[in-house]
Amino acid sequence: MYADEIWFKDALGAALMNLLLALSQVPANAAGQVQILSTLQSIINQALFNGTISVGKTLSVDQQLYIAQVTGSATAWKQVQNIGYWVNVVIESYVVNGVTEYKAVYTLIYSKDDDIRLIQGSDILI
């Protein structure tokens, strides 16, 4: 349902904002990546528990190829299929008014079960 998606994206954003507010600094290095991944993982675990993320959904070849393209990994789709998600954080630099700043960019790919939208049947009395 759409409510799951809304909850999930909002929870991720709120958790990351809480991380930034709770700490005086999130370092632009591997330690910062781990802090962000840990924060994301806590919400991912909730999403696995409440069914927002689905484990074991068979992915089509097109989905597998798309995941490989986005992640740069030919095997990332196996993680999405087998555990329901793939996540990564990259620290990137950018320049604002001649000053180098840093940002963390996360990519989260996850699967969701397909929904039944129609039920058809026959009731036959003989």
Task: Itemize the secondary structure elements and their pairings.
Blueprint: H1 2-22, H2 30-50, H3 61-71, H4 76-83, E1 85-96, E2 99-110
Antiparallel strand pairs: 1-2
Helix pairs in contact: 1-2
Keywords: Signal
Protein name: Phage protein
Signal peptide: 1-30
What can be said about this structure in brief?
The protein contains four helices and two strands, in the order ααααββ. The protein is α+β, with helices and mostly antiparallel strands and 126 residues long.
Supply the key terms.
2 strands; 126 residues; alpha+beta; elongated
Total domains: 1
Identify the strand order in the major beta sheet. Answer: 1-2
Mean pLDDT: 94
What structural class should be given to the helix and strand makeup?
alpha+beta
Kindly report the oligomeric state of this protein: single chain
Strand share of the residues? Answer: 15-25%
What is the β-strand count?
Answer: 2
Low-confidence stretches: none
Number of helices: 4
The best one-word shape is elongated
Head-to-tail CA distance between termini: 39 Å
N to C succession of SSEs: HHHHEE
Based on CA atoms alone, the radius of gyration comes out at 19 Å
Major sheet details: 2 strands, antiparallel
Q: Helix share of residues?
A: 40-55%
Task: Write up what this structure looks like.
- A hairpin with a 2-residue loop joins strand 1 (85-96) and strand 2 (99-110).
- The longest helix is centred in the N-terminal third of the chain and has 21 residues, at 2-22.
- It is built from four helices and two strands, in the order ααααββ.
- The protein has helices spanning 2-22, 30-50, 61-71, 76-83, and strands at 85-96, 99-110.
- By secondary structure, the protein is an alpha+beta fold.
- The radius of gyration is 19 Å and the shape is elongated.
- A two-stranded antiparallel sheet has the order 1-2.
- 48% of the residues lie in helices and 19% in strands.
- The chain has one domain (2-110).
- Residues 1-30 form the signal peptide.
